[in-house]
């Protein structure tokens, strides 16, 4: 029998491997302990979903006025709160529902990723195709994480020190540079690519390399746990 895991996937401990994980955890717990009793984890999950649609809408509206990028940045902070605080609140209050939370959290995460990527692709600063490439690569990373959880019994969040929080900060930084007039919106070559398209494609390439490297490591480990028959 495999020695990889003996517990349900939903109960697997989380191993946050991104740079800001420790600081984020302290901040989230501080906020969670001060929320009104009427605020429940599902309320925060719903807030995160609404914020994702708001972010997409703000990127779409930036076709008319780049000031909407400030709204997108503000909503990225709201999305962080909703997406990250729901689980922390449940743990602080000892009202965890592991299977329900695991299912709902990953379902809305996939939805939010797709919606935000679509919004980026419909903005004047990124081609729709590039936005969708980023979404596909992010979802592949997510699927690999879920498979790792099943195989090893640990939910390892983050690749190479980068997690969802760092990604949001990068988006906020790029939004700010464009909103204050730094020239990131010009085209490159005859393909109509913008600087953000090139950055997006570079990020997608890094994500592909990260999942390939991690998959190779996982397969070596699994081969040791389950050696092939002679």
Task: Provide structural commentary.
- The chain is mainly alpha-helical.
- The protein contains seven helices and four strands, in the order βαααααβαββα.
- It has a two-stranded parallel ribbon.
**Widest sheet: strand ordering:** 1-2
Beta strand count: 4
Sequence stretches where pLDDT stays below 50 over 5 or more residues = 1-6
Q: In the CATH hierarchy, what is the superfamily? A: CDP-alcohol phosphotransferase transmembrane (TM) domain
Silhouette: globular
What is the number of domains?
1
Radius of gyration: 19 Å
Q: Kindly estimate the percentage of residues that lie in beta strands according to DSSP.
A: under 5%
How does the helix and strand content classify structurally?
mainly alpha
> What is the fold-level CATH name, i.e. the topology?
Four Helix Bundle (Hemerythrin (Met), subunit A)
In the CATH classification, which architecture applies?
A: Up-down Bundle
Order of helices and strands: EHHHHHEHEEH
How far do the termini sit from each other?
17 Å
Largest sheet: 2 strands, parallel
Q: How helix-rich are the residues, as a percent range?
A: 55-70%
Mean pLDDT over all positions: 87
SS element count, helices: 7
**CATH C-level category:** Mainly Alpha
Please describe the topology of this protein.
Elements: E1 14-16, H1 21-32, H2 41-61, H3 68-93, H4 98-121, H5 128-152, E2 155-157, H6 164-179, E3 187-188, E4 193-194, H7 195-225
Parallel strand pairs: 1-2
Antiparallel strand pairs: 3-4
């Amino acid at each position: 029998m495999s020695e990889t895991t003996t517990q349900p996937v939903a109960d697997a401990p989380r191993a946050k491997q991104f740079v800001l994980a420790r600081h984020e955890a302290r901040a989230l717990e501080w906020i969670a302990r001060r929320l009104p009793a009427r605020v429940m984890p599902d309320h925060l999950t719903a807030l995160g979903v609404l914020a994702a649609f708001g972010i997409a809408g703000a990127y779409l509206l930036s076709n008319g006025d780049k000031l909407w990028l400030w709204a997108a940045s503000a909503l990225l902070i709201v999305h962080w709160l909703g997406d990250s605080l729901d689980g922390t609140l449940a743990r602080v209050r000892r009202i965890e529902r592991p299977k329900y939370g695991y299912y709902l959290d990953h379902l809305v995460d996939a939805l939010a990723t797709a919606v935000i990527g679509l919004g980026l692709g419909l903005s004047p600063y990124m081609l729709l195709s590039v936005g969708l490439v980023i979404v596909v690569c992010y979802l592949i990373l997510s699927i690999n994480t879920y498979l790792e959880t099943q195989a090893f019994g640990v939910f390892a969040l983050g690749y190479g020190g980068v997690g969802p929080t760092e990604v949001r900060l990068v988006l906020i930084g790029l939004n700010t540079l464009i909103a204050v007039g730094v020239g990131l919106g010009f085209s490159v070559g005859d393909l109509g690519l913008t600087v953000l398209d090139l950055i997006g494609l570079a990020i997608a390439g890094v994500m592909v390399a990260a999942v390939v490297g991690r998959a190779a490591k996982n397969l070596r480990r699994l081969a040791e746990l389950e050696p092939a028959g002679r």
